């Protein structure tokens, strides 16, 4: 075989690729990317036009200034009238539009929602989006039977431990009600304990009665390191509905609000759906303009 033929026919070894299969296996075994990392920049879903939003806002102002809110506890009535609200002879407190708008303008636009671990605190406000849990389910899907059953305190502990590991959840509220704890004080105490025992993220709960707040704060102080320490960095907030349907105050909830203010507990004040409002207004139509 001549040299030129040998040159043309010799087999050139190909370089073996390394790491291809190993890389694929590593990719498959890696945990999925966080679909909603804490604090990502979000937008705003806008199903309504700006004109629609303005109409709703102006209607809300009219309701507060002309219809007002009823069943006003005495302490709250004194504080509201001192701030500029007007108490009518019908026992309803009315809010001038200027008072409402001043309150909105003076509200904090950004604040820290503390975690028991400071590194897990979050900044609320601006365009940053933080996902949390919600609800107070009285039933839980049992993974062993595939059936729903009454929620238990054990479920709350388990759910709290679960969310503590979920990086897409920034804060946690009690997601179920321990139906196996019938006493309301024991329920409030054990709910708060389950939250702070199993996560160091910001947490949220609710207080059934105002007299439950102080004893629970004593427990929170122990977790925070001493008397008065919780109020310096409150890592638990409360969800409460001081306004109930139709357009009236709930006295027990108002009492809880005052007690939370005394202990520097952040509050998510939920305005209940105002069913029956328009029926009541049918007999008190808007004044003609």
What is the secondary structure topology, with strand pairs?
Layout: H1 3-9, H2 20-29, E1 40-41, H3 50-67, H4 74-83, E2 86-87, E3 93-94, H5 97-106, E4 110-113, E5 122-125, E6 128-129, E7 139-141, E8 148-150, H6 153-164, E9 172-173, H7 184-198, E10 203-205, H8 213-224, H9 229-232, E11 236-244, E12 248-249, H10 251-262, E13 267-271, H11 277-282
Parallel strand pairs: 9-10, 10-11, 11-13
Antiparallel strand pairs: 1-6, 2-3, 4-5, 7-8, 11-12
Give the tags.
289 residues, alpha/beta, TIM Barrel, 2 domains, five-stranded mixed beta sheet, two-stranded antiparallel sheet, disordered C terminus
Give a short summary of the structure.
The protein is of the alpha/beta class. It has helices at 3-9, 20-29, 50-67, 74-83, 97-106, 153-164, 184-198, 213-224, 229-232, 251-262, 277-282; strands spanning 40-41, 86-87, 93-94, 110-113, 122-125, 128-129, 139-141, 148-150, 172-173, 203-205, 236-244, 248-249, 267-271.
């Amino acid at each position: 075989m001549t040299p030129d033929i040998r040159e043309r026919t010799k087999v050139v070894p190909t370089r073996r690729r390394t790491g291809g299969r190993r890389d694929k296996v590593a990719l498959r075994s890696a945990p999925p990317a966080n679909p909603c990392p804490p604090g990502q920049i979000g937008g705003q879903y806008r199903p309504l036009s700006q004109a629609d939003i303005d109409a709703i806002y102006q209607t809300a102002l009219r309701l507060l200034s002309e219809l007002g809110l009823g069943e006003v506890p005495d302490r709250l009535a004194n504080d509201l009238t001192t701030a500029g609200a007007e108490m009518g002879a019908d026992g309803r407190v009315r809010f001038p539009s200027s008072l409402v708008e001043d309150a909105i303008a003076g509200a904090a636009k950004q604040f820290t929602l503390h975690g028991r671990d400071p590194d897990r605190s979050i900044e609320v406000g601006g365009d940053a989006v933080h996902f949390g849990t919600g609800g107070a389910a009285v039933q839980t899907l049992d993974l062993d039977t595939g059936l729903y059953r009454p929620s238990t305190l054990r479920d709350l502990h388990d759910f709290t431990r679960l969310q503590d590991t979920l990086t897409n959840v920034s804060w946690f509220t009690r997601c179920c009600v321990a139906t196996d704890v019938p006493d309301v004080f024991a329920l409030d105490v054990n709910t708060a304990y389950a939250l702070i025992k199993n996560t160091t993220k910001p947490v949220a709960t609710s207080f059934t009665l105002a007299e439950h707040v102080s004893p629970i704060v004593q427990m929170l102080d122990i977790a925070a390191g001493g008397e008065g320490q919780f109020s310096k960095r409150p890592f638990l907030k409360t969800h409460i509905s001081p306004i109930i349907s139709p357009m009236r105050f709930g006295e027990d909830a108002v009492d809880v609000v005052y007690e939370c203010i005394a202990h520097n507990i952040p509050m998510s004040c939920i305005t209940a759906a105002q069913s029956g409002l328009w029926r009541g207004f049918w007999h008190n139509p808007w004044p003609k303009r």
